[in-house]
Specification:
By secondary structure, the chain is an alpha/beta fold. 43% of the residues lie in helices and 20% in strands. The chain is built from twelve helices and twelve strands. The strands form three sheets. A five-stranded mixed β-sheet has the order 4-3-5-12-6, with helices on both faces. Strands 9-8-10-7-11 form a five-stranded mixed β-sheet. A two-stranded antiparallel ribbon has the order 1-2. The N and C termini lie far apart (77 Å). Belongs to the LysR transcriptional regulatory family.
Length: 313
Protein backbone atom coordinates (compact mmCIF):
# COMPACT_ATOMS: atom_id res chain seq x y z
CA UNK A 1 0.00 0.00 0.00
CA UNK A 2 1.26 3.42 -0.94
CA UNK A 3 2.29 5.53 2.06
CA UNK A 4 0.01 8.50 2.66
CA UNK A 5 1.58 11.94 2.77
CA UNK A 6 -0.35 13.17 5.85
CA UNK A 7 1.49 16.50 5.74
CA UNK A 8 -0.34 17.24 2.54
CA UNK A 9 -3.77 16.40 3.98
CA UNK A 10 -5.57 19.58 4.95
CA UNK A 11 -9.22 19.84 5.99
CA UNK A 12 -9.44 23.06 3.98
CA UNK A 13 -8.82 21.03 0.83
CA UNK A 14 -12.00 19.03 1.48
CA UNK A 15 -13.91 22.27 2.03
CA UNK A 16 -12.52 23.59 -1.25
CA UNK A 17 -13.50 20.37 -3.03
CA UNK A 18 -17.05 20.62 -1.70
CA UNK A 19 -17.34 24.25 -2.84
CA UNK A 20 -16.09 23.36 -6.32
CA UNK A 21 -18.58 20.50 -6.55
CA UNK A 22 -21.39 22.85 -5.58
CA UNK A 23 -20.54 25.81 -7.84
CA UNK A 24 -18.51 24.19 -10.66
CA UNK A 25 -16.53 27.43 -10.84
CA UNK A 26 -13.21 28.42 -9.28
CA UNK A 27 -14.38 32.04 -9.00
CA UNK A 28 -17.75 31.30 -7.34
CA UNK A 29 -16.18 28.68 -5.05
CA UNK A 30 -13.55 31.22 -3.98
CA UNK A 31 -16.27 33.80 -3.29
CA UNK A 32 -18.18 31.33 -1.11
CA UNK A 33 -15.11 30.62 1.00
CA UNK A 34 -14.06 34.29 1.07
CA UNK A 35 -10.64 33.57 -0.41
CA UNK A 36 -8.90 34.80 -3.53
CA UNK A 37 -9.24 33.05 -6.88
CA UNK A 38 -5.50 32.29 -6.89
CA UNK A 39 -5.81 30.61 -3.46
CA UNK A 40 -8.68 28.46 -4.73
CA UNK A 41 -6.65 27.51 -7.82
CA UNK A 42 -3.77 26.57 -5.49
CA UNK A 43 -6.11 24.38 -3.45
CA UNK A 44 -7.30 22.61 -6.59
CA UNK A 45 -3.70 22.02 -7.64
CA UNK A 46 -2.92 20.47 -4.21
CA UNK A 47 -6.03 18.28 -4.42
CA UNK A 48 -5.04 17.00 -7.85
CA UNK A 49 -1.55 16.16 -6.59
CA UNK A 50 -2.84 14.53 -3.41
CA UNK A 51 -5.47 12.38 -5.12
CA UNK A 52 -3.69 11.74 -8.40
CA UNK A 53 -6.64 12.86 -10.53
CA UNK A 54 -7.62 16.05 -12.42
CA UNK A 55 -10.91 16.09 -10.45
CA UNK A 56 -12.28 19.06 -12.44
CA UNK A 57 -11.80 19.87 -16.12
CA UNK A 58 -12.66 23.21 -17.67
CA UNK A 59 -15.42 23.13 -20.29
CA UNK A 60 -16.34 26.66 -21.27
CA UNK A 61 -17.18 28.56 -18.08
CA UNK A 62 -17.72 25.42 -16.02
CA UNK A 63 -15.42 23.10 -14.10
CA UNK A 64 -16.82 19.65 -14.83
CA UNK A 65 -16.08 16.93 -12.24
CA UNK A 66 -14.34 13.77 -13.30
CA UNK A 67 -15.66 10.31 -12.44
CA UNK A 68 -13.23 10.20 -9.51
CA UNK A 69 -14.60 13.51 -8.18
CA UNK A 70 -18.18 12.26 -8.50
CA UNK A 71 -17.25 9.13 -6.57
CA UNK A 72 -15.58 11.15 -3.80
CA UNK A 73 -18.31 13.78 -3.40
CA UNK A 74 -20.68 11.78 -1.09
CA UNK A 75 -17.77 10.71 1.14
CA UNK A 76 -16.42 14.24 1.44
CA UNK A 77 -19.90 15.55 2.29
CA UNK A 78 -20.24 12.89 5.00
CA UNK A 79 -16.83 13.72 6.49
CA UNK A 80 -17.56 17.46 6.59
CA UNK A 81 -21.00 16.86 8.13
CA UNK A 82 -19.50 14.64 10.84
CA UNK A 83 -16.85 17.23 11.68
CA UNK A 84 -19.47 19.99 11.78
CA UNK A 85 -22.07 18.16 13.87
CA UNK A 86 -20.00 15.87 16.08
CA UNK A 87 -16.69 17.71 16.52
CA UNK A 88 -17.26 21.43 16.06
CA UNK A 89 -20.81 21.33 17.44
CA UNK A 90 -21.00 18.58 20.09
CA UNK A 91 -24.31 16.80 20.42
CA UNK A 92 -26.73 18.45 22.85
CA UNK A 93 -27.09 16.61 26.15
CA UNK A 94 -30.57 15.12 26.62
CA UNK A 95 -31.07 14.02 30.27
CA UNK A 96 -34.10 11.83 29.46
CA UNK A 97 -31.99 9.72 27.09
CA UNK A 98 -28.83 9.47 29.21
CA UNK A 99 -28.06 5.92 30.39
CA UNK A 100 -24.51 6.55 31.63
CA UNK A 101 -23.15 7.22 35.12
CA UNK A 102 -22.78 10.49 37.00
CA UNK A 103 -19.90 10.17 39.49
CA UNK A 104 -19.99 12.80 42.23
CA UNK A 105 -17.20 13.17 44.78
CA UNK A 106 -18.37 14.23 48.25
CA UNK A 107 -16.80 14.76 51.63
CA UNK A 108 -18.51 13.07 54.60
CA UNK A 109 -20.15 16.39 55.38
CA UNK A 110 -21.45 16.95 51.82
CA UNK A 111 -22.58 13.34 51.40
CA UNK A 112 -24.72 13.45 54.54
CA UNK A 113 -26.29 16.76 53.61
CA UNK A 114 -26.83 16.35 49.89
CA UNK A 115 -26.74 12.70 48.77
CA UNK A 116 -30.49 12.09 49.21
CA UNK A 117 -31.64 15.23 47.40
CA UNK A 118 -29.08 14.76 44.62
CA UNK A 119 -30.33 11.22 44.07
CA UNK A 120 -33.97 12.35 43.99
CA UNK A 121 -33.29 15.23 41.61
CA UNK A 122 -31.13 13.30 39.16
CA UNK A 123 -33.51 10.34 39.12
CA UNK A 124 -36.32 12.72 38.26
CA UNK A 125 -34.47 14.64 35.54
CA UNK A 126 -32.42 11.76 34.10
CA UNK A 127 -34.46 8.65 35.01
CA UNK A 128 -32.25 6.20 33.10
CA UNK A 129 -28.96 7.39 34.61
CA UNK A 130 -26.77 5.66 37.18
CA UNK A 131 -25.44 7.66 40.14
CA UNK A 132 -22.21 6.92 41.99
CA UNK A 133 -21.20 8.79 45.16
CA UNK A 134 -17.45 8.76 45.79
CA UNK A 135 -16.33 9.56 49.36
CA UNK A 136 -13.22 11.73 49.46
CA UNK A 137 -11.45 14.39 51.51
CA UNK A 138 -9.01 17.25 51.14
CA UNK A 139 -6.09 14.81 50.89
CA UNK A 140 -7.26 12.73 47.94
CA UNK A 141 -9.74 14.84 45.97
CA UNK A 142 -7.19 15.87 43.35
CA UNK A 143 -6.39 12.28 42.39
CA UNK A 144 -10.07 11.28 42.43
CA UNK A 145 -10.72 13.03 39.13
CA UNK A 146 -8.33 10.73 37.28
CA UNK A 147 -8.17 7.63 39.49
CA UNK A 148 -11.90 7.31 40.15
CA UNK A 149 -13.21 9.25 37.13
CA UNK A 150 -15.12 11.72 39.28
CA UNK A 151 -17.16 14.23 37.27
CA UNK A 152 -17.49 16.88 40.00
CA UNK A 153 -16.55 17.33 43.65
CA UNK A 154 -18.54 19.05 46.41
CA UNK A 155 -16.71 20.14 49.56
CA UNK A 156 -14.67 22.78 51.33
CA UNK A 157 -11.70 22.21 49.03
CA UNK A 158 -10.45 24.89 46.64
CA UNK A 159 -9.25 24.74 43.05
CA UNK A 160 -5.60 25.48 43.84
CA UNK A 161 -4.55 23.49 40.81
CA UNK A 162 -4.41 24.90 37.26
CA UNK A 163 -6.20 21.77 36.03
CA UNK A 164 -9.29 22.49 38.14
CA UNK A 165 -11.99 25.11 38.17
CA UNK A 166 -14.58 25.85 40.85
CA UNK A 167 -17.84 27.57 41.66
CA UNK A 168 -18.82 28.93 45.07
CA UNK A 169 -21.96 27.34 46.54
CA UNK A 170 -22.43 28.77 50.04
CA UNK A 171 -20.71 29.63 53.34
CA UNK A 172 -21.09 27.46 56.45
CA UNK A 173 -20.68 28.39 60.11
CA UNK A 174 -20.60 26.45 63.42
CA UNK A 175 -22.68 25.73 66.50
CA UNK A 176 -22.20 23.90 69.77
CA UNK A 177 -24.24 20.70 70.07
CA UNK A 178 -24.96 18.96 73.40
CA UNK A 179 -27.48 17.12 75.58
CA UNK A 180 -28.59 19.78 78.06
CA UNK A 181 -29.83 17.22 80.60
CA UNK A 182 -26.62 15.17 80.58
CA UNK A 183 -24.27 18.16 80.59
CA UNK A 184 -26.25 20.58 82.73
CA UNK A 185 -25.48 23.27 80.16
CA UNK A 186 -27.86 26.09 79.35
CA UNK A 187 -27.71 28.59 76.50
CA UNK A 188 -25.77 30.65 75.91
CA UNK A 189 -22.80 28.50 76.93
CA UNK A 190 -20.16 30.54 78.75
CA UNK A 191 -16.47 30.18 77.94
CA UNK A 192 -15.86 28.78 81.44
CA UNK A 193 -18.46 26.02 81.01
CA UNK A 194 -17.27 25.39 77.46
CA UNK A 195 -13.73 24.73 78.68
CA UNK A 196 -14.68 22.52 81.64
CA UNK A 197 -17.12 20.31 79.68
CA UNK A 198 -15.50 17.30 77.94
CA UNK A 199 -15.42 17.67 74.16
CA UNK A 200 -16.18 15.34 71.30
CA UNK A 201 -14.34 16.22 68.08
CA UNK A 202 -15.19 15.41 64.49
CA UNK A 203 -11.72 14.73 63.12
CA UNK A 204 -11.39 13.48 59.52
CA UNK A 205 -7.65 12.85 59.96
CA UNK A 206 -7.75 11.52 63.53
CA UNK A 207 -5.90 14.46 65.10
CA UNK A 208 -7.42 15.38 68.47
CA UNK A 209 -6.99 19.12 68.23
CA UNK A 210 -8.06 21.95 65.95
CA UNK A 211 -7.67 25.67 65.46
CA UNK A 212 -9.91 26.19 68.49
CA UNK A 213 -7.23 24.72 70.75
CA UNK A 214 -4.59 27.15 69.50
CA UNK A 215 -6.98 30.04 70.02
CA UNK A 216 -7.72 28.89 73.58
CA UNK A 217 -4.00 28.38 74.29
CA UNK A 218 -3.29 31.95 73.17
CA UNK A 219 -5.77 33.07 75.82
CA UNK A 220 -4.25 30.80 78.47
CA UNK A 221 -7.04 28.19 78.37
CA UNK A 222 -7.22 24.51 77.52
CA UNK A 223 -10.16 22.23 76.83
CA UNK A 224 -10.35 18.48 77.34
CA UNK A 225 -11.03 16.50 74.16
CA UNK A 226 -12.42 13.24 75.49
CA UNK A 227 -13.35 11.69 72.13
CA UNK A 228 -12.54 12.00 68.46
CA UNK A 229 -14.07 10.35 65.39
CA UNK A 230 -14.01 11.08 61.70
CA UNK A 231 -17.66 10.08 61.50
CA UNK A 232 -20.22 12.71 62.45
CA UNK A 233 -22.86 10.01 62.91
CA UNK A 234 -20.80 8.41 65.66
CA UNK A 235 -20.34 11.72 67.45
CA UNK A 236 -24.01 12.62 67.12
CA UNK A 237 -25.18 9.34 68.67
CA UNK A 238 -22.66 9.61 71.50
CA UNK A 239 -23.79 13.09 72.52
CA UNK A 240 -27.17 11.87 73.72
CA UNK A 241 -27.11 10.99 77.43
CA UNK A 242 -23.43 11.87 77.89
CA UNK A 243 -21.51 14.77 79.36
CA UNK A 244 -20.06 15.86 76.02
CA UNK A 245 -20.15 18.99 73.89
CA UNK A 246 -19.18 19.18 70.22
CA UNK A 247 -18.67 21.98 67.72
CA UNK A 248 -20.22 21.06 64.37
CA UNK A 249 -21.30 22.84 61.23
CA UNK A 250 -24.69 24.48 61.60
CA UNK A 251 -26.29 22.58 58.71
CA UNK A 252 -25.16 19.23 60.12
CA UNK A 253 -26.83 20.16 63.40
CA UNK A 254 -30.01 21.04 61.47
CA UNK A 255 -30.41 17.59 59.89
CA UNK A 256 -33.82 16.11 60.63
CA UNK A 257 -32.77 12.44 60.36
CA UNK A 258 -31.95 12.11 64.08
CA UNK A 259 -34.46 11.18 66.75
CA UNK A 260 -32.80 13.15 69.53
CA UNK A 261 -33.36 16.32 71.48
CA UNK A 262 -29.94 17.93 71.44
CA UNK A 263 -29.45 21.64 72.06
CA UNK A 264 -27.50 23.90 69.78
CA UNK A 265 -26.17 27.40 70.31
CA UNK A 266 -23.37 29.68 69.09
CA UNK A 267 -19.92 28.74 70.43
CA UNK A 268 -18.27 31.10 72.94
CA UNK A 269 -15.10 31.20 70.81
CA UNK A 270 -14.49 32.62 67.35
CA UNK A 271 -14.48 29.87 64.72
CA UNK A 272 -13.83 30.73 61.10
CA UNK A 273 -16.63 30.06 58.62
CA UNK A 274 -15.81 27.92 55.59
CA UNK A 275 -16.95 27.95 51.98
CA UNK A 276 -18.42 24.98 50.17
CA UNK A 277 -17.43 24.80 46.51
CA UNK A 278 -18.19 22.82 43.40
CA UNK A 279 -15.02 21.66 41.59
CA UNK A 280 -14.40 20.10 38.18
CA UNK A 281 -11.63 19.56 35.64
CA UNK A 282 -11.10 22.74 33.65
CA UNK A 283 -10.67 20.83 30.41
CA UNK A 284 -14.27 19.59 30.75
CA UNK A 285 -15.83 22.98 31.41
CA UNK A 286 -17.71 23.09 28.09
CA UNK A 287 -18.77 19.44 28.01
CA UNK A 288 -22.58 19.45 27.54
CA UNK A 289 -23.24 16.64 30.04
CA UNK A 290 -21.07 18.17 32.75
CA UNK A 291 -22.37 21.68 32.13
CA UNK A 292 -25.88 20.34 32.73
CA UNK A 293 -24.78 18.36 35.80
CA UNK A 294 -23.06 21.36 37.41
CA UNK A 295 -26.16 23.51 36.97
CA UNK A 296 -28.48 20.85 38.41
CA UNK A 297 -26.17 20.21 41.37
CA UNK A 298 -25.80 23.93 42.13
CA UNK A 299 -29.57 24.46 42.11
CA UNK A 300 -30.21 21.34 44.20
CA UNK A 301 -27.60 22.22 46.83
CA UNK A 302 -28.83 25.82 47.04
CA UNK A 303 -32.42 24.68 47.66
CA UNK A 304 -31.29 22.15 50.28
CA UNK A 305 -29.24 24.73 52.17
CA UNK A 306 -32.16 27.18 52.14
CA UNK A 307 -34.52 24.48 53.46
CA UNK A 308 -32.16 23.52 56.30
CA UNK A 309 -31.55 27.11 57.32
CA UNK A 310 -35.27 27.76 57.52
CA UNK A 311 -36.19 24.56 59.33
CA UNK A 312 -37.75 24.64 62.78
CA UNK A 313 -34.68 23.29 64.60
Amino acid sequence: MKAINWRGVDLNLLVAFSALMEHRSVTRAADKLSIGQSAMSHNLSRLRQLLGDPLFERQGHLMVPTARALDLAPTVDTILAMITNQVLQPERFVPDDYTGTFTIGLTDYAEMLFAPVLFDTLQQLAPQCHLSFCNLDRHNYLNAFNDRHVDIVIGSMVANNKELDSQYLYTEDHVCLFDSAATGLTTPVSLARYITTPHALVSPDGILCSGIDKQLADQGFQRHIALGSRNFLTIRHLLTGRNLICVVSRLMAQLDIFNDDLTQCPPPVDIADFDINLLWQRRNTEHPKLTWLRQVVKETVTKRVHALRHSSH
